[in-house]
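We modelled the chain as a single entity of 250 amino acids. Its sequence is:
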Amino acid sequence: MYKIESKNIHLHYGEFHALKGINLSMKPNTVTALIGPSGCGKSTYLRLLNRMNDLIDNVKIEGEILIDNNNIYQKGTNVDSLRKKVGMVFQKPNPFPKTIFENVAYGLRVNGISDKNFIEERVETSIKQVALWDEVKDKLKKSAFELSGGQQQRLCIARALAIQPSVVLMDEPTSALDPISTAKIEELIYELKNQYTIVIVTHNMQQAGRVSDTTAFFYMGELIEHDSTKIIFTNPKIERTQNYITGRFG
């Protein structure tokens, strides 16, 4: 599993200085929650970890991000290979207009894998990993759109896991879901950290408290504090963190 280390990261969207000198280290097999008010830079930071900000015009990035001791922003980095290692799950479930089976097989096929047995094995394993197998095993040929929102989101996580990444990024993965589906995804995150390094953006303080080992508090493009989740929520060192956690602002 991979350690993630960010060194003095600055990011500009045109004239706007969105991230200011971010230094953040995340250990393998842990869940790190990124918290902070809307527009504070946490999703921008998350997207740096699989170079999704590359797709936006007029972005300037300075500093280093090391994943498994390799700087992913050095010249010559193969971004496709990076994205195989770093899976992504978005805010709203976004299944493809394909069958349940083909949604999970998609990444394997895109990466040139054609071995039918291997694909079937990876699809089944990934769906089992997200505790969805018993619910869908008899309807793998049905459209993914027939699933509920919570099932679709677990399917999207299975799709990310099928290509066997080492890091999984989650951008508010439960914000569109009901409480029961949210609880299932949280349980899943807790179990998945045995095999992956997980980074999750969440607006939900209780969720950060429940699922993460460490929490990083972002504010106005700066990383204000990063510590064990227990310390951040019970005894933060910085007053601004305390004010945010207790709802005095943000």
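As a brief sanity check on the tokenised model: Strands lie at 4-13, 16-26, 31-35, 59-67, 70-71, 86-89, 167-171, 197-201, 214-219, 222-228. Residues 13 and 59 are 5 Å apart (CA to CA).
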